[in-house]
Amino acid sequence: MQSHISHLESHASSQRAQRDKLHHAIATTQRQIDAKLAAQQEYAARMEKQSELNGPELAFWETYLGTRIEGGGDEGIIRVAYSFPPERGGTQKEEREATFELHVPETGSGGYEVVHTRPRLDGEDVARVVRRLNETRDIAVLLKGMRSLFQNEVGERMIVR
């Protein structure tokens, strides 16, 4: 009986030790989760602050270049649309649109890439504009260069909204 009691006491002691280890592991994991959550909230706040600064600049480029800049459905894709006047004899509702999709690289990896254009443009001309963008990292170079290529393709002046 005495050995059975000592066996139960040692078993209870090992169970308490296991419980204490699990409590410690849970507390450590909770601290890690809290730290990651705080980092995510800080990142979201920085992105919100940056988006407030980006709004006026985006509006300037959209007005200045007669463009519409929007998400392309994927996190790394930006879609840019240019509006052109209707063909002769057409109505204002028949405005034509030229678009391209730009793949934006993740931080520190590779360069920008135009993945789609409509209407289709000469690949060498597009590559030349993208190469200048990658060299200068100035988005205005891309927007102006692509507008020029589309103007040559469409053959008419753009409407500035």
Shape: rod-shaped
Which segments are poorly predicted (pLDDT under 50) over 5 or more consecutive residues?
Answer: 156-161
> What's the order of the H and E elements?
HEEEEHH
**Helical proportion?**
55-70%
SS strand fraction: 15-25%
Question: In total, how many beta strands?
Answer: 4
What number of structural domains do the residues give?
2
CATH class of the largest domain: Alpha Beta
The CATH architecture of the largest domain comes to 2-Layer Sandwich
How large is the radius of gyration? 29 Å
Instruction: Give the CATH H-level superfamily of the largest domain.
Output: Chromosome segregation protein Spc25
With strands numbered from the N-terminus, the spatial order across the biggest sheet is: 1-2-3-4
Distance between the termini: 94 Å
Question: Tally the helices: what do you get?
Answer: 3
